[in-house]
Design brief:
Two copies of one chain form a homodimer.
Chain A: E1 10-12, E2 15-22, E3 25-32, E4 41-44, H1 55-68, E5 71-75, H2 87-101, H3 107-132, E6 144-147, H4 151-162, E7 168-172, H5 178-185, E8 191-196, H6 204-213, E9 219-224, H7 240-246
Parallel strand pairs in A: 4-5, 4-6, 6-7, 7-8, 8-9
Antiparallel strand pairs in A: 1-2, 2-3, 3-5
Helix pairs in contact in A: 2-3, 3-4, 4-5
């Protein structure tokens, strides 16, 4: 399957990996070699300062393709990865370093920066969904999951609040601010929320509050010792996407 | 396998079900028909006012035997199930009803009652472990899990604090009092802690505090909407015992 959307294609170990470009936003799609129409799509966001091919993201993406038969897409957030950083973004990044150097909380800077990134990234993800659901092996109307902590939750929560095509999501470990809480209240799909119990940078109570505000009836919070850098995926794997995107719990071969 | 420990034996659907009596404490053991030495043992506690054959406990026990190849044991707590209620226990039960009728918090009554039940039940569970680990199909030194919320956690947490034979445990939804916090600090085995997010009877913050106090390095908290009557086991199944009692994640056939 090769359309003009894609700029590269490589096949290895049963995984088709293709770079794409949608309105100047670069992304990558990993999919099973044998993908057929209706293949569930998982959107994976990257953390702040990282990019679409960050090592852990790629690891999770490959696992999802090989073990669950999903297609997985990642895009660079504005000013991340292969995308130039705007002057304004550069000021926010410098302000974060200045906050840290001065021993000040970075919270207000991160809140402003993340909110701005989300305003730009939400329409980019929506355009990505538009394009990928036109691929025959994915198709329109199928299940779509979104997964990502930290910056990826700052973007994914408002995305899930406005785009009904996303049917299940994993969030967590994110700086909390008013816009994010308002967005969480609009989210009604099943969610899992990951809470680092001992995060030096993110207040535990703010995460508990955000979890409580999600409008979803089907929501679970999973807390674990350590910071958002140390998510013990092996301990909290509840086969969430397999249950929600496969609609019955049966994993693909 | 039939020893003098057992008073009944029935085999159906691949499950051997045997009643036992250890120092006047009645219990039941469910095990695979084909159990061989080293079969992991899971101890399942029942909730307050319930008993060793409560419907949900039996359901979870049968699943653990059939799907994971575990042996599962349950015993009646003091004054529960087939065991006579002492005069003192009767007073606590009446005090709880009086608290509820008067619109008072039941917390102090439940704390005193649960602490007393735990003082008696911990040695009973230890004697049960002594007896069951002498069975050839279980044997000494193998992995032992403990699972149970509410009263079963009030008993299981101090049990896990003092008996090193228990190697992994699931707790949650329990009234918190000082002795329980002190016991939790002594627990160092892997645990999962289930927290009902909207429990009318158990304060959310007390559960979060208790989770924080567990001495375990490997611990995860799983919170879900609703009360302790509505644990969504299908949403929070992390194959915890399969990982910890089978030592590698491979389930038995």
């Amino acid at each position: 399957m090769h359309t003009s959307l894609f700029t590269t294609q490589a096949i290895a170990d049963g995984i088709v990996e293709r770079d794409f470009l949608i309105d100047d936003v670069p992304g990558v799609l990993w999919s099973p070699e044998s993908a057929s129409p209706g293949t569930p799509l998982v959107l994976m966001g990257h953390g702040g300062g990282l990019h679409k091919r960050s090592a852990r993201l790629v690891g999770r993406a490959r696992d999802a393709v090989l073990h669950d038969g999903f297609a997985v897409a990642a895009i660079d957030a504005p000013g991340h990865g292969d995308r130039p950083r705007s002057t304004e973004d550069q000021r926010w990044v410098e302000a974060m370093f200045a906050d840290r150097a001065a021993g000040r909380s970075m919270a207000s800077t991160i809140a402003a920066y993340n909110a701005s990134l989300a305003d730009r990234a939400v329409p980019e993800w929506r355009a990505t969904i538009d394009a990928l659901t036109r691929l025959p092996e994915i198709g329109d109307g199928g299940p779509i999951g979104y997964s990502g902590m930290t910056l990826a939750s700052a973007i994914g929560i408002p995305l899930a609040a406005v785009d009904p095509r996303i049917t299940a999501a994993i969030f967590g470990g994110v700086f909390v601010y008013d816009e994010l809480i308002r967005a969480a209240r609009q989210v009604s799909i099943p969610i899992e929320f990951l809470l680092p119990w001992d995060d030096d940078e993110i207040d535990r109570d703010s995460g508990l509050t955000l979890f409580g505000e999600f409008g979803s009836l089907d929501k679970t919070l999973h807390a674990f010792p350590g910071s958002h850098f140390t998510v013990p995926v092996d301990r909290i794997d509840t086969r969430f996407f397999v249950r929600h995107l496969r609609g019955g719990g049966a994993a693909a071969a």
